[in-house]
């Protein structure tokens, strides 16, 4: 595998960073190639501004819709125009080079307020621009490729998430089912851009973990990475599967009487979770390996 490992944690001595080191070492020992984007260490700028897109040369947008507006910033259109004109900011282009090289993307972060840290959200905002990761059209039909297809199709994606809570995680838990908490990332980002979604690795009780607990969590991560090429996968429905009607609503005959995020999956929810006593999903409890 050719792996891009993106880390979002401000403390290089943290449990999260140490797990990254263990994971990267295990991949390299297994013969895989790894490049990294350690966002805090890089001083990554998470804020989208007009400066991301530069100024196009005369004629750079020939054949594209409408001139770049001068009175307001249309982020999606401006980003695609800059992509095609080669005027994207250098730090964005550097991340594009990494993504173009990789066949596997690992995003690792602590869960803060039921989501990733702002710096990682800003990496997604700035890097996954229109025309590169999304908004890509099929050259034959002209249809937009999304949800199972798109600019990052052919890659696999894994989220490695540390969680402070050690209890109350699951479909009936106070903190929720973390596969649903992460729906925006797994379905709305990974799957939307065409990447195949690996079951996330969730490390629970991270705030109170002792050395023995860390060793077991690291073993779980290494084992998960060793089998990553074969899944398991979060099996979401594709946009072109015929499962959705012309209004992008799930057909009435599918998952009848059900609603919510789970109806967009064709499998039973499985998540690698540590510790194994607290499953992230009601359907499967994955043992520590």
Automatic annotation (TrEMBL):
SUPFAM superfamilies listed in its UniProt record: Flavoproteins
Keyword Oxidoreductase part of the UniProt annotation: yes
InterPro entries attached to this UniProt entry: Flavodoxin_fold (IPR003680), Flavoprotein-like_sf (IPR029039), NAD(P)H_dehydrogenase_qn (IPR051545)
Keyword field: Oxidoreductase
All residue ranges annotated as the Flavodoxin-like fold domain in the record: 1-225
Pfam families: Flavodoxin_2
Domain of life: Bacteria
Family named by the database record: Belongs to the NAD(P)H dehydrogenase (quinone) family.
Full protein name: NAD(P)H-dependent oxidoreductase
Organism of origin: Isoptericola luteus
């Amino acid at each position: 595998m050719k792996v891009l490992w993106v880390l979002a944690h401000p403390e290089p001595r943290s449990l999260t960073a140490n797990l990254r080191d263990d994971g990267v070492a295990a991949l390299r020992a297994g013969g895989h190639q790894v490049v990294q984007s350690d966002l805090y260490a890089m001083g990554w700028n998470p804020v989208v501004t007009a400066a991301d897109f530069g100024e196009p040369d005369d004629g750079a947008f020939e054949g594209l819709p409408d001139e770049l507006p001068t009175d307001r910033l249309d982020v999606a259109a401006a980003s695609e125009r800059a992509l095609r004109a080669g005027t994207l900011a250098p730090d964005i282009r550097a991340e594009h080079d990494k993504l173009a090289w990789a066949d596997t993307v690992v995003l690792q972060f602590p869960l803060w307020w039921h989501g990733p840290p702002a710096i990682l959200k800003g990496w997604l905002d700035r890097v996954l621009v229109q025309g590169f990761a999304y908004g890509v059209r099929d050259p034959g039909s002209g249809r937009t490729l999304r949800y199972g297809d798109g600019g990052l199709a052919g890659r696999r994606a894994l989220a490695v998430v540390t969680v402070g809570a050690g209890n109350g995680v699951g479909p009936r838990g106070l903190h929720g089912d973390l596969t649903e908490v992460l729906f925006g990332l797994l379905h709305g980002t990974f799957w939307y851009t065409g990447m195949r979604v690996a079951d996330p690795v969730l490390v629970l009780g991270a705030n109170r973990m002792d050395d023995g607990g860390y060793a077991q969590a690291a073993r779980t991560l290494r084992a998960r990475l060793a089998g990553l090429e074969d899944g398991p996968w979060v099996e979401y429905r594709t946009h072109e599967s015929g499962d959705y009607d012309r209004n992008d609503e799930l057909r009435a005959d599918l998952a009848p009487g059900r609603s919510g995020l789970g109806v967009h999956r064709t499998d039973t929810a499985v998540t690698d979770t540590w510790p194994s006593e607290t499953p992230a999903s009601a359907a499967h409890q994955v043992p520590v390996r």
